[in-house]
Write a structure and sequence with these properties.
about 200 residues; mainly alpha; about 85% helix
Amino acid sequence: MTQKPQRRSKAVLAREAAREKAARFRELEDERLRIAESAILIQEEIDDFDEETERRVAKLREERNSQLGEKRQKLDALVVEMLDTEIPAQEASERLGMSVGQVRAAKRSFEQTVAALAEGSADSATATTDDAAAPSAPPAEEADAAALRRRRPRLPSRTTFRLPVDRLRCRLRRVHRRTSRTRPFRQGRRADTNA
């Protein structure tokens, strides 16, 4: 009879151990669920924060690019203004604290901007005059003449961009004159040295 209670006590002990094990498993499972929920919430916060910072960075980059563009245009205008005082690019670069390549690039950029503005103003001027003059469809000869006029950009008589465009034309003429005079001399000189 003494053996039977021991078996019962072993069974009872096993049941108690199983209950404790199940309770511990439930506690660990609840802890794992809590940790997983916290991790998911933090991941969502990280994603939201990342999206917000990316949006802010994109906005700051847009502002930076627009402000840099404006400042570069002002610098280009100043470089061209310095070159208009009829000093060489080398001296202008020394005075402005830039390299000669940067001076030439600024001049080129300014000239492209002026040309684009001139074309834009000519296009808008021809578009407004065409719209106001002929609300109905013009005959074929007038349409051909209008197409020819649109192909050649024309500056309006009074425009703020006339002066820079005239300067640009004068500069291009000067450059052409310089290169047309110096090329035969240089080519002849090279031919003499090679011979």
